[in-house]
Amino acid sequence: MSSATIEPAAKAKIVGPSEGLLVSAPYETARGILLASETNGKFLLAETTVVPGGCPPLHQHEHEDEIWIITEGSFEFIVNGETTIVGPGAVVYSPAGDVHRFRCVSETPGKFYILVTGSNFEQFFMKWQMALANGDMGAAMQSAADHGIKFMEPIGAATTGSSPS
Length: 165
Prior knowledge:
By secondary structure, the protein is an alpha+beta fold. The chain is 15% helix and 36% strand.
């Protein structure tokens, strides 16, 4: 008989359409639907609304895979130097190590679900948001470094949410 350890199951959860943890950045608002802390650290699922022109800087995750499911608007994705425009119903997958970013290129806000593997990104994002709220860019950048997230362009250069080009 095997003595393999069985990981305790995460607790089942039903989340309504207006429930979840709301987090805002200059270019997006995210609703944490299932947090990594609720899935035994396996993944984070969020619904994100992005303003026209809004995007993060080009970046790379050392630890996380990401999956976006587009539900509204149009997005430009750059993944490893390849640019693609996608709309509702499209699915974009970016494994750990890919250099990537998205940008809302529609005239109205775009929306997607994002699934991020593991718990590392959730830990990073909470520290990042607290540091930015306190005006401490040094702590924000340290959080990125501590969690294996590398930015390929200046912070703020791509996040303002100007008109799509």
